[in-house]
């Protein structure tokens, strides 16, 4: 019966494809945060990975998810895209300020509760937000998320290198050498992206899409990346105990061939009492590239089930 209701719900959601779009700025503590919204329905805020990437390369993703009946929201994380700070330093690029930015967007849009969707670093961002504002979260979706603590980072480089050929590893080492970055600044980012992109996907036909996301669409800010990681270490980022009391439904979706490693997803699942774990085979770090049908079906089914649960509770 539950499967039948889910099927009906998904059919109705797919019927109501929406095209409305808006953008603006939300005033936060010391910065105006640029956001965009797509579609209508129950709100889902999408936190892109990085850190250091703006949200523009998640526009198509947000549009795709909004077609399933949600209002999707993306925003440029502080110091990226159109959410610029006057001076970038370790006092204004912190996880606590980034959480305040999320709250500013929520309040500005008049949203009581939203689903928080975090991909990669965005998953870490979303989990940290959940420890500060659990009552503002209807559900949590963690897509190929970074860890519940920083342990996963210890094996990240090794996992990446295992997925690269020797030529790709040599190229990555060349383009990340500080001397070469300084000597060839216009080529280093492209060279680094081309050499490391194959590690992020299972199906190598998707490599050009990953390269595009890392280069043409990225406007990547390496200084932001470094400062966020510096702050994660400074606050001793470890959410295991804080999230044990988080009761809202959680979907953890990832790939069995993700360079983050399966153990990262399992450890998050073990810490969150009301979580569902879905690991897709023949899938790297981007489920919507390697396994798009399965990936979006898992997410849409989860969101639909959460919506049904809310209706029953009423």
In words, what does this structure look like?
This protein has 314 residues and is α/β, with parallel strands linked by helices. The chain has one domain: Alpha/Beta hydrolase fold, catalytic domain (Rossmann fold, 3-Layer(aba) Sandwich), CATH 3.40.50.1820. The chain is 46% helix and 16% strand. The protein contains 13 helices and eight strands. Strands 1-2-4-3-5-6-7-8 form an eight-stranded mixed beta sheet, sandwiched between helices. Helix 8 packs antiparallel against helix 9 (207-214). The protein starts with a helix and ends with a helix.
Name a few traits of the molecule.
alpha/beta; 8-stranded mixed beta sheet; 46% helix; single chain; disordered N terminus; 314 residues
Give a brief description.
The protein is of the alpha/beta class.
Number of discrete domains: 1
Distance between the termini: 20 Å
Number of helices: 13
Beta-strand residue fraction:
15-25%
Q: What is the CATH superfamily classification?
A: Alpha/Beta hydrolase fold, catalytic domain
Q: What general outline do the C-alpha atoms trace? A: globular
> Got a strand count?
8
Helix content range of the residues, please? Answer: 40-55%
Strand order of the largest sheet: 1-2-4-3-5-6-7-8
Order of helices and strands: HEEEHEHEHEHHHHHHEHEHH
From the 3D coordinates, which CATH architecture would you assign? 3-Layer(aba) Sandwich
Rg computed from alpha carbons, rounded to a whole number of angstroms: 19 Å
